[in-house]
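User: Fold this; tokens only.

Assistant: Input:
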Amino acid sequence: MAVVYPDYYGEFRCIADKCRHNCCIGWEIDIDGDTLDFYRSVKGDFGKRLLENISEDAPHFILGDNERCPFLNHKNLCDIITELGEGKLCSICRDHPRFRVELPGRTEVGLGLCCEEAARIVITKKNKTSLTCAPETDDEIILLRDEITALLQNREKSLENRLCDVFSLFGESIPVFSADEWRERLLALERLDDGWGERIADLRGEDGLEEFERYIAGRETEYEQFLVYIIYRHLAAAPDWDEAYRRVCFAAFCYFLIYNLGALHYKKHGKFTTADQIELVREFSAEIEYSDENLYAVIDSF
């Protein structure tokens, strides 16, 4: 079984206590069966502490004050790692922010943008992203994805023209996204953070985009890498051409959303740094990609 991954995949290292958005806060983490069996075997005071902080009903860690994992200490470091070693984490904690997509004859892995360090690695990459260990295939959806990726990475054209080329593969034009319509749709979705809702509530149409376009000139690679990430993560699992089209529409919508929210930030603050971009895509990923309900509500709307 081939394991396929983007060329930046190996760069990731958890920044632990330096992380501003700790993945050990606010997330209810399920514990896989093998790890649960090991935790039940741990002796002494730490073994007792493990059992006291695990819910037996759909086993997961019981969040404490301020929705903190009970094993996240005052230094924002993991007591399970310090007591037992990193290899004794449950599978979700061990893998995060890595994701896997199981496909016939291959497993594709990557780094999810909901992690600020993963988002930094992806968004600040200057060279074109390539896939490592990708075997030859006759799968039409994967071949379509390869073609779309090549079009998105054609730096001789503007991003809008690259997207035009992508939609021409389907005999379509780029969809028109109404900021007013999508503001209401997105506000109706489940929200993890009130700050995201505040961003979306301010979403408007074309106002200020020309000035932002001049300001952001020279930073097109940030949007290119974002689009290539969305296509890599979400397209290959499409079961047919119609679903592939919906997911390409989703990618274009994600670009529309991130670009317009960036323009809004610039209008409010007079600047929009790469650090602001990283935080924006992190919020997007946490709110949309990491909620299956939200993700499929958006994809299925196309």
